[in-house]
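Good morning C.,

I know you're traveling, so I'll keep this short. The sequence:
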Amino acid sequence: MIEGALAGFTVAVTAERRRSEMAALLERRGARVISAPAITIIPLIDDEALHAATAACIGLEPHLVVATTGFGFRGWLEAAEGWGLAETLRESLRNARIIARGPKPCGAIRAAGLTEDWAAETEASEEVLERLLAEGVAGRRIVVQEHGEPQTEFVKALRAAGAAVVEVPVYRWAMPPDPAPVRRLAEQVVAGHVDAVTFTSAPAVKAFLQIAADAGADVTSAFGRHTLAACVGPVTAAPLIERGVEPVIPERFRLGALIKTVTDELPRRAVRLRVAGTTLEVRGHAVLIDGVTHALAPAAMSILSALARRPGAVVSKDQLAGALPRGNDGHAVDVAVARLRAALGSGRHIETVIKRGYRLRIDEAA
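The tokens, ready to paste straight into the viewer:
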């Protein structure tokens, strides 16, 4: 069952668009969600550049139209509607071959009463460019709907191959107006308080890494050690892969598939132990005992995690003190252990070893 599958885990959402939908899907599965949009989308519906590009597109009578995002394609037609140009624009597009940069724009294309000629499986501009250049574009009139930033190299390659190109800037990406939530998220990732960070666009990844670097937070190392990076597709994942991070990517590059991948992957990474006759599963901020979730305070969670890393071994008070969020002495460890036992509902899981420390009562293998 998906309900509760992510209980005890903390998952961050860096998307601006559809963040409420993503948060709801994760919370339904029991996750604690942190929302920290890494970029903001600035629509250009009233922008003179978009109006001029739309008029140029209509006048150009294009042979080819490259639709890069469903959001941008819909926004373009909505803007044209406001200017009274929607039907004229649709007619111009209807007479052209429409190439979609992946499956996502196809829904917007069809909703406009149009039909795509072909969609790139990888959702990468490189695949679209390779196909167009292989077909030959000399003398072709091509319209490129941008997706948040100018497609400089893409357009340059088409023009170098002899095409006439009109760029349509429907919206653009920008850093968030207040980077503080993203900065706090980066710090939480480094501290090990976030189990997974989700990304739905490459610009969001780049912005997150930039804000983290400005804050002195080494998030790339954290992704390698204890935090899962989850990306909706390979284009989104590319900036992380360039940094040596290996994110998880769903087979289908969709938001729902991304949530499912996180839901499948995080429980697989949890530590499961047989302790004092029970199955104990250590998650990010909670422990499951025989499938029942027990929420833990940060200090108690730190103690349990430290013990679980060395199952059955005695862990000294000094070592446990070093694992506490703010450090401290042996007395603070004793208090945290007492609270941990109370939260677990029994003292039988943790054994006190006089003058040495504590350990989990691991069941011996049969």
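Safe travels,
E.
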